[in-house]
């Protein structure tokens, strides 16, 4: 049985999540998408659905399924599977809307820690909407920075309300916070679904992502707590020393590591070692062999909250000696 891909939609209050979901639920795209709408969203998709039942489910005209919940997310996920297996609803993709003030991490972790759900659902990616007109105010909040940091893709709305210079400055700031998430513009909630679905942000056997800039970013004077840190070396790494480095990092700063991902060159090994994680949950695997003409460089990308960056760089540098 093929697992159902899951997209988590995050973003600060008023960024346009509901507008995007309305488009997704009403457009003639031929996809059978189920949307779990959190009851605290800024405006209900179909407010008449909200009643006393903990989970309300309705199949819409284009075949999509709208699900409004007043209960634990895990319970809603199981209920959708029960109805899917019973044939009362049909869907092959799932989108979960987080509340504007919510940290998407607990939602993502649900698909790692619940074994039965892991077999039926596959976390595909976290998409965060950013309101260009109010980003300066929103990003004063650490939770808004964290929503950007967790993302595999950043969709910027309301760009028509700001100047080209302001949008360029915002894009640069978003890249400082999260260097691995591509930035895309969304207009009136309409988005090319290729930018929203099949991101494969949690696949282990993929590269670090097209959003990762290989050019050094200008330092600027940002006071953002959430920032990207990229570690790289062209020296082969000892796997035991690397393991000790990562274990210490997770022990000391696991709650601060929002997202992290790496492709590593290990001593005496022809294959690339890839890994990624969310907070203290991470996985790793051996990937394909390095190509003969490919630079055997280890690259690790961390998006984290207020890390002691220089101390970590020094510890990583020591691995190469």
From TrEMBL:
Catalytic function, reaction form: GTP + H2O = GDP + phosphate + H(+)
Residue ranges crossing the lipid bilayer per the database entry: none
Keyword Hydrolase: yes
Its biological purpose: Zinc chaperone that directly transfers zinc cofactor to target proteins, thereby activating them. Zinc is transferred from the CXCC motif in the GTPase domain to the zinc binding site in target proteins in a process requiring GTP hydrolysis.
Protein name: GTPase
InterPro entries: CobW-likC_sf (IPR036627), CobW-like_C (IPR011629), CobW/HypB/UreG_nucleotide-bd (IPR003495), P-loop_NTPase (IPR027417), Zinc-reg_GTPase_activator (IPR051316)
UniProt keyword terms in alphabetical order: Chaperone, Hydrolase, Nucleotide-binding
Species annotation: Pseudomonas typographi
A Pfam short name: cobW
Similarity comment text for this entry: Belongs to the SIMIBI class G3E GTPase family. ZNG1 subfamily.
Highest taxon above the source species: Bacteria
Listed SMART domains: CobW_C (SM00833)
Location of the CobW C-terminal domain: 226-320
